[in-house]
Amino acid sequence: MTVSGNDVRTVTFGGQRDGEGTLTWGQRLMWRAVHLMGDSQSFLNCPWVLPVYGRRDLAAVLEALRVLLERHESLRTTFADTPDGPVQRVAGRGELTVELVEAGQERALAAAERLAGEMSRTVFAHEHDLPLRCAIVTADGRPKALAFAFSHLAVDFQALGLLSARWRGLLRGEDLPADAWTPMDQAELERTEPYLARSARSVRHWRSVLEEVPLEVFDHPPGEPEDPRFIEVGMESVALAGAAVRLAERWTISTTSVLIAACATVLARVNGRRRAVMQLVHSNRRDPRTESMVATVGQDGLLVLDLPGTDFADTAQAAHRSALMAYRNAHYDPYAMQAMREEIGRRRGREPDLDAFFNDRRGGGSWPSLPRLAPGEDLAALTGKTHTYVTNAWPGVRFKVFFTVGTAPDTGQLSLIIDTAYLSRETAREMLLGVESLLVRSLTEAVACP
Amino acid sequence: MTAGAAELERKLADMIAGLSDGEISAEEVLAGGHSLSALGLSSLALIRLVDAIEDAFGVDVDLSGDLSSFEYVSTLAAHLADLLVPGRPR
């Protein structure tokens, strides 16, 4: 059988159970995001590649894929709107069609990455589609890599990391037990105390911020945007990563806190404000049972950072404390949160715009393959090797400011999606370089903030 | 140290060890030679610890102010003992 000229195979799976239930908080958040984004929701899709380790034949790879689907309910789940609200439906059995693509002259992993990106550009019809698409890249007739597009309703970055580790085990011939904790279990738990109490506390925290936060992210009015309006400016800097590591050690806080502090500082500077307000994308796997759960769990925290008016060391400590508050209050029922935000909107004339984000995608919060730096090595000299670039643009992605720490293990990858009606690409580039400069200078001097 | 305070520290040290996935031992925590963050207690583990303390002791832990009481098990136990004083709002 062929599709677009390529062979296809069908993976038939049968899970331990099927069922229907309410959405988890993580799914509710993503469900709303998917619908708010409309045609641009493919931005939320997650391209992913799993290498075929060892010399496995196609039958072994398809068998491993079957087990992967059977063991993870999230990968067998569709989503539907019902009169009682959206639900998740776990399929007890089903089929996944997998295309076989010969790599040709291309390296197999590169071909898989390209295919994963291409497959991710198509929106999922969540009511009917399994939340993943898969193609197997072959070379010389052997499977070399799997290209995936996952719906963000099924996975977050931690889930993808779990799938990678389990895939490796499956190909080694290890048994993979069924998920000990599933989204259906989690959704039930979230309807009980103390979860409801935590949600109520988080909503109270957000309310206290939203009652007085400026209604706009930027004080200046929008100008003439570029076309496309939303662009992503990226930076790769070993100096950024090296400096973040040294400062984190010096101040016994995480590199994430150091980077949050620096990004919040440059945002506040652009605005001429003393307070930075940003949403933090948070993995949110607070219940230990969720740590090994393949699902979308992440929710956003709300960071409020008042720059202390002294130096960056104090700012970083304040950011660390504020980030803890944000993480703690990132655990809530999105329905309750939305009701509160709408109420604030009615009272203040409109909902405050919270479209400034920070996301650290590094799983372990480190750069495991960073080049070895000699103790005391001058990192300022390394900044000459930093490069910046403009990457993707999504016409429908409506972020004002979105900082992302990338997953590159050997360099500090920091990108910034901007709304060019408010910030120019040159300002965005200066903000990224400003983060680097703030960290590198703080190694040798007390840098005034703001 | 009273027997009650020692017992509280032990309970907290066991909680921390359990939440850190074996990265930090209860003995290291009780030794008090290094702060919890220096021992490697991550932000996520700290939030989990606060959740666990609230669930186990029925108190409401405030993270919005000074966090110095979260640096050592001894200071954390003293802070918790204060929260557990009868009549104090929880």
TrEMBL record, chain B:
InterPro entries: ACP-like_sf (IPR036736), PP-bd_ACP (IPR009081), Ppantetheine_attach_site (IPR006162). The keyword Phosphoprotein applies. Keywords: Phosphopantetheine, Phosphoprotein. Pfam families: PP-binding. Residues 3-84 form the Carrier domain. This is Carrier domain-containing protein. It comes from Nonomuraea glycinis.
